[in-house]
Amino acid sequence: MAVRLSIRGAEQNPSQIASIRRAYEQAQSLFDDRGYDFFAALHGLSAPFWCEHNTALFLPWHRAFLYYFELALQTRLGPRFTVTAPRDPAVAGVGLPWWDWTSPASHANGLPDSYADPAPANPLAGVTIQTAVSPSQALTGVWSQWLLDMVRASPQLSGTITATDPPRTLRDPDPPNQLPTHTRVFQDVLQENTYEGFWNKLEDVHDTVHGWVGGAMATVPTSAYDPIFWSHHAMIDRLWYLWQNSPLGVDPPSPLLNVVLAPFPMTVADTLDIADLGYEYAVQVGV
Ligand SMILES: [Cu+2]
């Protein structure tokens, strides 16, 4: 069972942040379909674009996405979304930490220190996008020169990556007090009593945070390259979990339940109970 901690809770225990960093470093050094770049590209850069936004599949699709990425962090992911024994037992229990952007600490300081620390060796501050592509890497999220040139020439994608070779992801955070408020999330979004109303409002809040971080996070094709993406989406997933377990939470409409969340071998129904997926959310501490 993986326990997903709040980032600022994990920051109170250096060994927990060290395990998370170790897991990210290993994923970022693997350039095949178990590696970081592969997952980052899956979100909105590889063709076809897989991610589900502005649809009723937004929450289940991203839950499946995080589930397989978490297996990758735990070094349990085999080729083509299979599950294997961990290659590194030291990270076998690592859970994706969630970033509570509604918390007082976030509204005072913005990004968590462990993600904001600009040290080049900090795998949570950003990623260097690999561009030395060989034909065998073409579908692994490693960028071709053509793709790099296209991103740099696109007005919509300007400001997402550095001008250096190889490029790194950029951020441009807004003032911390502009993050979504606790009131908006807990007194409004979580008070919805229909699935449609809930995911629509939650996706709007989610969009606010992507725009707040700015840089790579502000556009769908590049957002998942920023390591904070996964912690932002873990917070979204946690809010869905909290709503599911509240008196107001309801399942998605039944016609959706057998929909397969491509490219993942998982249906909407498979995502509904996180205990079945082998993870849980820690009670909030140190936020
Ligand atoms: Cu997102």
Q: Which labels suit this protein?
A:
single chain, 287 residues, mainly alpha, di-copper center containing domain from catechol oxidase, two-stranded parallel ribbon, two-stranded antiparallel sheet, 3% strand, binds copper (II) ion
Counting helices, strands and paired strands, the structural category is: mainly alpha
How would a textbook summarize the main sheet? 2 strands, parallel
CATH architecture identity: Orthogonal Bundle
Please provide the ordered H/E string of secondary-structure elements. EHHHHEEHHHHHHHE
Ligand catalogue:
copper (II) ion
Strand order in the largest sheet: 1-4
The oligomeric state is single chain
Whole-number tally of structural domains: 1
Kindly provide the name of the CATH class: Mainly Alpha
Which shape, going by the Cα principal axes? globular
Radius of gyration: 18 Å
The CATH topology is di-copper center containing domain from catechol oxidase
- Residue-averaged pLDDT: 92
Strand percentage: under 5%
Under CATH, the homologous superfamily reads Di-copper center containing domain from catechol oxidase
